Amino acid sequence: MTTKVKHIVRDIENQLTDKTLVVGNQLPSLSELCKTYKVSRDTSVRSYKDLLARGVITAIHGKGYFVAKSNPLIQVNLFLLLDELSSYKQVLVNAIVNGLVDIKGEYQIFFHHYNPSLFHNLVNDSIGKFTHYVISPFPNAPEVESALKKIPEKKLILIDRHDELDMDHNFIGQEYFEDIVNSLRQIKNRLQNYTRFVFIFPEPSYHPQELKSGFTKVCKELGLTHHILSNTNTMKKGDAFLVIDDNDLADMVEKCTENNWELGKDIGIVSYNETRLKSVIANGITTLSTDFNAMGEALIENLENKKSIYIHNKSSITIRKSI
């Protein structure tokens, strides 16, 4: 690095340190840089190239150069966009945040609540302000895919789900069809003790549709009488349930208490997504869940991976007295 390049780089870094420049600020064009520092275009290019290589700034085609990190010593400035904050997603967030502390990274977290316009606006407003984009998308919304395509491919990691998007992407998360089939096979003998196996799948819903096809496949394979319903209204003694919404789970436990039904004998329940509460309520609720802590740790380990990544964070069954 020549003396002139070092001077420009250090000057920009100093402006970041004293907050003259902050994340998202647009930097001078190459021509403006030449005039300000009285240097050649080649020197200006090499100065920005150094800052780009370290993720301090980012370049947006047709717009220019922008500050990506508030601290030049920080290697990661993460844009984290999730669907909503639940107790199990909090485990994921904690793993990511704790991991960023270890690598001296920064982050901002947002939630889209399955709102296409909000999703689009949050992503659009973030372009050029971060070194990495970690996003949980959702299907059947053109705004989602169009927003994601604005993010440089190497900077984008889809987390938890990817919903067959028509684009190349890095991914760390669940494969719902495969996971539900493999997990329910493990409790075949327990499920066969019940009259029917019912999947309570709320509609309308942004829950992955692959869950329904996986449920149907494994039930046919195991010879189980099965149904997919949107509510618990027809709940009766002898049923086993797979429940995805915790409000439905609460209703079912309450109905068991009202009718003096014994969980694990008169009624069977498997609940999606492990939480600490499910390990203690009603003497323990069996769960089908991915490991959200492991998902967050895998993300941190792969943030600086220059190659395309695909990590299937598998799910498993935790058997308790409810089935």
From TrEMBL:
Keywords: DNA-binding, Transcription, Transcription regulation
Molecular function as annotated in GO: DNA binding; DNA-binding transcription factor activity
Segments forming domain HTH gntR-type: 2-70
InterPro entries hit by this protein: LacI/GalR-like_sensor, Peripla_BP_I, Tscrpt_reg_HTH_GntR, WH-like_DNA-bd_sf, WH_DNA-bd_sf
Keyword Aminoacyl-tRNA synthetase: no
Name of the protein described by the UniProt record: GntR family transcriptional regulator
